[in-house]
């Protein structure tokens, strides 16, 4: 623990201590009962995923193993689904005891204290049947999806990626990072990507369960092994868990569980060459990972995030550019004299305000394919974000405008009528300027919310600021990128607030 | 005989089942100052709103300087087309009870914008005239002020200047003294008298008898949606034979 705290900035230390306090409190509160909290990505069948038959329950090969370990140790198992990008923070703050979730050792040997490898896994490529892609070299010029911070991504871009894989990745038109496998398959199905690269265990499970539309290429991208990742230096807990696993291998319960989940072929616990990572950390001999602190690191993080900042600013600017006038148009329709128009606008606004923006983004992006069979291109991603945001914010703006217009006293219209202004003149010269004044405060609120909402673009895997920050944070096992992201949002909003104040003075 | 600027014939108006105006007819002649008196709920405000076309009457006719705004046909008021009504509208102006100045325009722009935007007058010429009108109502130094920087009396004078800038033949005033202090009322009175001297026809809706007596050539007393009495102020106010007029006047004097 001491080793790690030194990596963090002051804020990091504060949060860390806070996490520590909470974890201590948790243990004290439980009295004698010891809990064992397993962190896992809840969308990673068959290793750990939400039970389709029982709401709120999680099942999987890894969770069964963990259950068995806890039974033997007399611990209470806590299954904690985590956001994969935040797994290091979860582990470092002690909110989970280990990452046990088809967790690839290769390339991460130094970042965690590892159990022995128990599953041998390889990265394979899934394509749509009849796509004409037969071998890895056919992927040249194609868009390939991988899960963010997955071993497939590491196989292509990680520090230990092989020359062949780097070259292969170079040949793709784009390597698209997606949040989870579900959206990866949505992307593949809709044609937004041409192939997905993932672990073979997951791949065979997914291909089997999604009907016959997909196939796995025979040629493999890489071979790798799964282990249980513990916080660097936590050999005590690791050794305890490993002891129980060894017992389970001995008495055949490991093999039984592997068979239950159809992973007998992949199971490799106890086989030769499975303990290389395990042997790195013996009795606290784990060496601290690279130091990451100081202004240099801070600046490098800012540089890494700058692309995301630009993306967030573009979403923000374009959304306002389109949503502010569109909102006015919707407001006009909403206040139209023709009843049917009024109702259409009303229903539109009610749907836009009554459903999550994230869902709307998914519909805009995947809708064209599922509704009309129009294949989605990769650069539609950005425009889908803009369209989704614009449609959503225009609905909010429309209602704000409407209340602004209704707030202008009736006498203003009457005075304009008596003076002979036309309807159009009355609106643009008399009503509109007064409405603008009235709506500035509520519009300001929406605009500030928009700055923060830009992070929702991650829903369709558009790499804006926050998505990138989480990725960089995970890659560096540091909270600094999140801190930088927070600072960015704050400064951004501060500038916006200042600008609006200037407008309001006029 | 001078000609009629405004003719209202058999005007009727109901809100739902409630008949607010039951057959109102009157005329206002050139240079005439007509005061409509009456208790609240008597229909005098509705009369003003219908005469200025802020609302439409159910039945009856409305004619300005011989230009027809609406005519009664088979028990219904039939209004003319938009273009014709626009022409009719240029005949009259209205000073609202709460003035309804445009808060986002300066005093000068409040007065000159409609002549430029609606009557398509030359901007320079309109500004020159607006400044003259504001000088006439004693506000030449407030040209660049915004309405919320003015007192009630000042706002009213801007509203009068704004109406005059459109060169109306007849000017309506809705309760011109209700939002003002008594001493300011004297100022308004002077402006109205000056306008009367210039032969501006005026229709003033009020419930202030003293004010009516000072300014009116012609008083219409309304109650319950009908014209109860009509005539010279001294006849209607001071020597009324009508029971309703007298009880209303008595109540006001007691108050």
Describe it.
- The complex is a heterodimer of chains A (506) and B (255).
- With 506 residues, chain A is α/β, with parallel strands linked by helices.
- Chain A has three domains: 2-116 and 227-290, Periplasmic binding protein-like II (D-Maltodextrin-Binding Protein, domain 2, 3-Layer(aba) Sandwich), CATH 3.40.190.10; 120-224, D-Maltodextrin-Binding Protein, domain 2 (3-Layer(aba) Sandwich), CATH 3.40.190.10; 295-505, MetI-like fold.
- Chain A is built from 19 helices and 13 strands.
- Chain A has helices spanning 2-5, 10-29, 61-73, 87-92, 151-157, 163-171, 181-190, 200-209, 235-250, 253-260, 276-280, 294-334, 339-354, 357-372, 380-407, 410-419, 423-453, 465-476, 480-505; strands spanning 35-40, 43-44, 48-50, 58-59, 76-81, 98-104, 113-114, 119-128, 143-147, 174-178, 195-199, 214-216, 222-230.
- In chain A, the strands form two sheets. In chain A, strands 1, 5, 6, 7, 8, 9, 10, 11, 12 and 13 form a ten-stranded mixed β-sheet that branches. In chain A, strands 2-3-4 form a three-stranded antiparallel β-sheet.
- In chain A, a hairpin with a 7-residue loop joins strand 3 (48-50) and strand 4 (58-59).
- In chain A, helix 13 (339-354) packs across helix 15 (380-407) and helix 16 (410-419) runs antiparallel to helix 17.
- Chain A is elongated.
- In chain A, 42% of the residues are buried.
- Chain B is of the alpha/beta class and 255 residues long.
- Chain B has a domain at 103-167.
- In chain B, 37% of the residues lie in helices and 28% in strands.
- Chain B has nine helices and eleven strands.
- Chain B has helices at 44-51, 82-89, 107-117, 123-136, 152-164, 182-197, 209-215, 233-238, 243-254, and strands at 4-15, 18-29, 33-37, 59-64, 67-73, 76-79, 92-95, 170-174, 201-205, 218-223, 226-231.
- Chain B has a six-stranded mixed β-sheet, with helices on both faces. A five-stranded antiparallel β-sheet of chain B has the order 2-1-4-5-6.
- The N and C termini of chain B lie far apart (40 Å).
- In chain B, 41% of the residues are buried.
- The model of chain B has no long low-confidence stretch (mean pLDDT 90).
- The chains are: A alpha/beta (506), B alpha/beta (255).
- Chain A binds chain B through residues 409, 411-412, 414-415, 417-421, 425, 429-430, 433-434, 437, and chain B through 52-54, 86, 89-90, 93-94, 96, 98, 100-104, 113-114, 117-119, 162-163, 166.
């Amino acid at each position: 623990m001491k080793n790690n705290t030194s990596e963090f900035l002051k804020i990091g230390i504060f949060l860390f201590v806070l996490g520590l306090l909470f974890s201590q409190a948790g243990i004290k509160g439980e009295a004698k009962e010891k809990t064992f909290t397993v962190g896992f990505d809840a969308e990673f069948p068959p290793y750990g995923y939400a039970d389709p038959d029982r709401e709120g329950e999680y099942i999987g090969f890894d969770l069964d193993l963990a259950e068995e370990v806890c039974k033997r140790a007399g611990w209470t198992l806590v299954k904690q689904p985590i956001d994969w990008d935040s797994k290091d923070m979860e582990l470092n703050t002690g909110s989970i005891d280990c990452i046990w979730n088809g967790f690839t050792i290769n390339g991460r040997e130094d970042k965690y204290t590892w159990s022995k490898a128990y599953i041998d896994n390889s990265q394979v490529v899934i394509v749509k049947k009849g796509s004409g892609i037969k071998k890895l070299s056919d992927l040249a010029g194609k868009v390939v999806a991988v899960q963010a911070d997955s071993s497939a991504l590491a196989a292509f871009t990680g520090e230990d990626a092989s020359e062949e894989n780097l070259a292969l990745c170079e040949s793709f038109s784009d390597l698209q990072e997606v949040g989870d496998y579900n959206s990866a398959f949505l992307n593949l199905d809709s044609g937004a990507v041409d192939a997905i690269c993932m672990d073979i265990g997951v791949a065979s499970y997914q291909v089997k369960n999604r009907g016959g539309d997909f196939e796995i290429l025979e040629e493999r991208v890489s071979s790798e092994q799964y282990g249980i990742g513990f916080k660097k230096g936590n050999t005590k807990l690791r050794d305890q868990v490993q002891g129980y696993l060894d017992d389970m291998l001995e008495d055949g319960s490991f093999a039984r569980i592997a068979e239950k989940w159809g992973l007998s072929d992949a199971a490799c616990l106890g086989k030769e060459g499975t303990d290389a990572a395990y042997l790195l950390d013996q009795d606290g001999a784990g060496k601290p990972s690279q130091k990451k602190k100081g202004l240099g690191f801070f600046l490098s993080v800012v540089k890494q995030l700058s692309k995301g900042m630009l993306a967030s600013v573009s979403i923000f600017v374009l959304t306002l550019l389109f949503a502010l006038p569109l909102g006015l148009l919707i407001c006009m329709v909403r206040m139209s004299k023709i009843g049917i128009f009024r109702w259409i606008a009303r229903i539109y606004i009610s749907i836009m305000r009554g459903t999550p923006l994230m869902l709307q983004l998914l519909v805009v992006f995947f809708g064209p394919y599922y509704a009309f069979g129009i294949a989605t291109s990769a650069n539609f991603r950005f425009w889908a974000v803009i369209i989704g945001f614009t449609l959503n914010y225009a609905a909010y703006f429309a209602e704000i405008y409407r209340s602004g217009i209704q707030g202008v006293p009736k006498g203003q219209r009457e005075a304009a009528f008596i003076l002979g202004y036309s309807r159009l003149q009355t609106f643009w010269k008399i009503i509109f300027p007064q409405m603008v004044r009235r709506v500035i405060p509520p519009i300001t609120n929406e605009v500030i919310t928009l700055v923060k909402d830009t992070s929702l673009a991650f829903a369709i895997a558009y790499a804006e600021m926050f998505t990138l920050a989480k990725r960089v944070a995970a890659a560096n096992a540091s909270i600094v990128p999140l801190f930088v992201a927070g600072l960015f949002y704050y400064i951004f909003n501060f500038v916006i607030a200042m600008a609006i104040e200037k407008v309001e003075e006029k | 005989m001078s000609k009629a600027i405004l003719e209202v014939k058999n005007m009727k108006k109901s809100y739902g089942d409630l008949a607010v105006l039951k057959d109102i007819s009157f005329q206002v002649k050139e240079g005439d100052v007509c005061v409509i008196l009456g208790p609240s709920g008597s229909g005098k405000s509705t009369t003003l709103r219908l005469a200025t076309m802020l609302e439409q009457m159910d039945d009856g006719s409305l004619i300005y300087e011989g230009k027809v705004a609406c005519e009664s046909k088979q028990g219904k008021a039939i209004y003319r087309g938009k273009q014709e009504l626009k022409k009719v509208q240029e005949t009259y102006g209205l000073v609202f009870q709460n003035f309804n100045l445009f808060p986002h325009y300066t005093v000068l722009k409040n007065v000159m914008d409609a002549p430029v935007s609606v009557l398509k007058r030359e901007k320079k010429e309109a500004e020159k005239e607006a400044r003259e009108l504001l000088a006439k109502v004693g506000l030449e130094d407030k040209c660049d002020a915004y309405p919320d920087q003015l007192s009630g009396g000042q706002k009213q004078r801007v509203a009068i200047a704004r109406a005059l800038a459109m060169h109306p033949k007849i000017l309506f005033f809705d309760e011109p003294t209700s939002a003002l202090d008594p001493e300011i009322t004297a100022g308004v009175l002077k402006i109205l008298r000056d306008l009367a001297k210039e032969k501006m026809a005026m229709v003033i809706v009020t419930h202030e008898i003293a004010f009516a007596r000072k300014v009116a050539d012609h008083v219409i007393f309304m109650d319950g949606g009908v014209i109860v009495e009509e005539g010279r102020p001294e006849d209607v106010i001071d020597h009324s034979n009508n029971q309703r007029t007298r009880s209303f006047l008595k109540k006001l004097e007691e108050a």
